[in-house]
Amino acid sequence: MPPIQRRGPIAHPERSAPLLSFPRILSNVSDAVPLVEAVTASSPAPSLSLADLGWSEFFGDQLEPGDADLIPTRVAMVHRDRLGGLSQAGQTDLSLPPQATTGDYAVGDWVLAEPHSHLVRRRLARKTVLERRVQGGRGPQLAAANVDTLFIVTSCNADFNIARLERYLALANEAGTTPVILLTKADTAEDAEAYQSQAAALQRGLAVVTLNPRISGAASALAAWCGVGQTVALIGSSGVGKSTLVNTLAGSAQQSPQQTGAIREHDAKGRHTTTARSLHAIAGGGWVIDTPGMRTLQVSDVGYGIDTLFAEITELAPLCKFRDCTHVHEPGCAVQAALKAGTLDPERLARWRKLSHENQHNTPVQTGPRGGKSPASRGKRR
Ligand SMILES: Nc1nc2c(ncn2[C@@H]2O[C@H](COP(=O)(O)OP(=O)(O)OP(=O)(O)O)[C@@H](O)[C@H]2O)c(=O)[nH]1
Ligand SMILES: [Mg+2]
Ligand SMILES: [Zn+2]
């Protein structure tokens, strides 16, 4: 069993000046105009270093001598039929290699592109990837790549759902990103603190931030996870305020890069205003990825993520008498003993069981060299 990792917020004392001279808006460039022309026609020369864009040794180590002429470019927008990229030269429309589809790329990916044609020659291996299996899909759906911190956004209203938050946490843990829960719309709730404490109890060391995405204080509340070289992503249901937060993080010096939409009064559901994933510069440095609101999140391939999420159960399992204990009826079961002693929450155990079953059911079983079967291991696809 892998060790349980705990990561706190990352401090960035070296955060440099805001990069306000750079054009930040990719999403509202008309489809008819190539991105690079649309931007260079009216914008000052960009002043970004690769490090500003989130490049690090992890990617530099993947370069080969033959790559010298290629341009490291960050995927900033994934449409059904095209990719937008960001390099030191500014924004570009990337061309796909034969046989590739836009679904093979995630916002946040690093690719090496040819200088003039902007043809993608190679995608670099990912530090982290947020992906989910979708019914009938060709492969997993990629939500974002090379994300340091995942902001899981939920509102203090009917959207708040513990079992769903646990799914997001399992996904974030599995991807290798630090999860942080953001609680919005506290101004509309009677007892916002109750939401805060319920969320904080979901995982050890989990940071929970209550904020109003519509006011500038939200940016300072999240400063510990943002800053030069850092990439954060927002996920959550439609209408919880993800795009509103993107606009606030982008800062008042920019036009709001993302459209936002009111929710339905009677059930607090959003209207799926955002339809594509996109990368935006944060005024204080770093990048934020906005994603469309998710309707459901089925888990698969998140065994490690579940172990981390339910650490109190994971830690008891080795103390059970039988190694393959199901913690239901076996004698000498440490999990059942903890339940009786009142040190383990029965509802947590029930949710752990449900999520684990779903994960096992959805995780493809690979046939090993001697015909033995083993679940696909973590980190198999980067
Ligand atoms: N009262 C209140 N309204 C908020 C708050 N945060 C966001 N809103 C409003 O909630 C609505 C939905 O916000 P969006 O940012 O469009 O939500 P989204 O999560 O991007 O939604 P999708 O793009 O549909 O996934 C907007 O009308 C916001 O102004 C908050 O803290 N308090
Ligand atoms: Mg949105
Ligand atoms: Zn047991």
Secondary-structure blueprint:
Layout: H1 35-40, H2 57-60, E1 71-78, E2 83-87, E3 90-94, E4 110-113, E5 120-123, E6 129-132, E7 141-145, E8 149-155, H3 162-175, E9 178-184, H4 192-200, E10 207-210, H5 217-221, E11 231-236, H6 242-250, E12 277-281, E13 287-290, H7 303-309, H8 311-314, H9 334-341, H10 346-362, E14 365-367, E15 373-375
Parallel strand pairs: 8-9, 8-11, 9-10, 11-13
Antiparallel strand pairs: 1-2, 1-4, 1-12, 2-3, 4-5, 6-7, 12-13, 14-15
The site of zinc ion (ZN) has 7 residues, from α9.
Radius of gyration, Cα only, in angstroms?
Answer: 22 Å
* CATH classification class of the largest domain: Alpha Beta
Strand-pairing-aware structural class: alpha/beta
How many domains would you count in the coordinates?
A: 2
Give the N-terminus to C-terminus distance in angstroms: 21 Å
Write the H/E string, N to C: HHEEEEEEEEHEHEHEHEEHHHHEE
